């Protein structure tokens, strides 16, 4: 990705007019998310808005379930546009990475795009600049699979100083030749970063470290390179003469295909070590990543504990008194051939009668697909798995709880569905 596109302020509309136009474009994009002209107009407007204002703003893209934040009077929107408008990271790769390391993660736009592109991968963002780290944490916070480390990637443990700011915080070059009092940025070798993450290997590295790539790839024999399937490396020969010759030996031509992808060098292992056959993705019934899932509640008691979500992906569904209709929570999901419904059923009450947990899967027209139930005694947890006939398309999923036969009341009937999911 090219850095440093100039930002120019044009005599333009007032702030209120600019924000109104931004909202109009966002509504239009939601209605027509695949319209390329609308997307171009939206990013053009964001760039004009950012050029004429300081402070924190946000973009609302239809494919994301949460806003992406950017700073005015910075190149943030330029970088966001390269990724989400121009598809700068759309790679024709054959590997299926499960661990992705982003070196020089900036504001997190690349990490969010990669999280959507590789939904089963864990992603680690390494970013040295404190101002970027704050925005990086804000943009990646809704994605549980993205982690953030505040450091620079280097060939050894060190403390670095800022050398050049080529495009504000987007392209800050670091060096280790400064006086001690100027060295404020901690730096760590990739092996140490992987240890901090608890990773034994990394499958895909995206490196945009503004000259530090020469340090990151200084040792072609580094053990962490042995399992690498894909590397996308932005080199800066203007900062480090001969840097491409430094990086290339890390990817022997006998094992890796080499090419260009925009401003990057692309290295791909010819026979990837990490390739998974296509399989239905794990689908959380209660999502803890961005996006909304429709939810309807039926026959709940008018009390605060009747239904609530906790830990982001589990819920309590308190049964009603015996003789009353079951308490129900109904979710709508598009299934993709999953073959099991799984959950841990937890009856958290003490001195209570057993609870009947029921899962019902239906088509939108009400045609039943699966109905299964399990009785759980007080203080018990049951790992539950229900076979499915690989359904596809929109379906309704009903979670239901009721007191078991013979119960006199629903006291302490704390019925909890822990991490319900389709697999």
Keywords:
423 residues, alpha+beta, Rossmann fold, 3 domains, seven-stranded mixed beta sheet, six-stranded antiparallel beta sheet, 8 helices
Describe the protein in words.
The structure is a single chain. With 423 residues, the protein is of the alpha+beta class. The protein folds into 3 domains: 88 residues, no CATH class; 189 residues, Rossmann fold; 140 residues, Jelly Rolls, CATH 2.60.120. The protein is built from 8 helices and 24 strands. A 7-stranded mixed β-sheet has the order 5-4-3-10-11-13-12, covered by helices on one side. Strands 14, 16, 17, 19, 22 and 24 form a 6-stranded antiparallel β-sheet that branches. The protein has a 5-stranded antiparallel β-sheet with strand order 15-18-23-20-21, with no helix packed on it. Strand 10, helix 7 and strand 11 form a beta-alpha-beta unit. Helix 1 runs antiparallel to helix 2. The longest helix is centred in the N-terminal third of the chain and has 17 residues. It is globular, with a radius of gyration of 26 Å. The two termini are 37 Å apart. The model has no long low-confidence stretch (mean pLDDT 93).
